[in-house]
Amino acid sequence: MIDLANVTLTFPDGSSRVTAIDDATLHVDAGTTVGITGPSGSGKSSLLAVASTLIAPDRGTVTIDDVEATGLTLTERAELRRTRIGLVFQQSNLIASLTAYEQLLVMNELTTDPRRRGARAATRERASELLDAVGLSRDAGKRPAQLSGGQRQRVNIARALMHRPAVLIVDEPTSALDQERGTQIIDLLLRLTSEHDTATILVTHDQRILPRLTGAHTMVDGRLRALDTPQTVG
Q: If DSSP codes are grouped into helix, strand and coil, which group holds residue 23?
């Protein structure tokens, strides 16, 4: 679960301040996907940065899996991201020298918890399970240059799920893909959100996918507003 309550974020602009997020409230339950759309420069990226605890808001609260994040230190917020938040960016940002399988294994080395770092057999099993879940078992030994754009994004999603996050933050995952591969990625995200019981926030410019989501919001000039989107099956 993730809950943003009355969040406001401003940035300095000369002698004044510009408002990037204006009193935004958003709630996403486990196992559901909520979409956010809106024009460029409307505040969507700022909202994702606050939701993922990369930036602390001026006002309001961010609660992730029953942890109120806005009162945490920088170190505590970093640990929260490592343990409870999965990030999927527009670009896959895979490490060129690592295979698809190794991209997932390396996530286990980022935690400060010695118990998790020591569970190498469990980590290997988890990596194999996730590559199978995203349809890349046969491509586990390939490096990014040997994978298509859609395949790289699938590795990106699997990597974000390695530490069993409570929250998945997804930023324009289909922007670099054609329509067919983009639809496959959305299908995958919706299925994995349900199967892994994550609360997923998905930023997208593709209005066509909004009816497939649990809920949708539009963002304009920093203000977030719920949309009425009749749901479709599939």
A: strand
> CB 157: neighbour CB atoms within 10 A?
21
| 197: its two tokens | 């019981």
pTM: 0.91
DSSP-H helix ranges across 134-221: 149-160, 179-196
Burial 188-218 (b: 16+ CB within 10 A, else e): bbbebbeebebbbbbbbebeebbebbbbbbb
What tens digit of pLDDT does each residue of 155-204 get? 999 999 999 999 999 999 988 888 899 999 999 999 999 999 999 999 99
Q: How far is CA 138 from CA 111, 119, 121, 141, 142, in A?
A: 28, 24, 20, 8, 9
pLDDT in tens, 14-40: 889 999 999 999 999 999 999 999 999
| Segment holding 10, helix H or strand E | strand 2-13
* CA 205 vs CA 4, 96, 97, 174, 226: distances in Å: 22, 28, 32, 9, 15
Q: Where are the domains of the chain?
A: 2-227
Pick the CATH number of 2-227 from 2.40.50.840, 2.40.110.10, 3.40.50.300, 3.40.50.620: 3.40.50.300
Mean pLDDT of the chain: 92
Residue type, 143: R
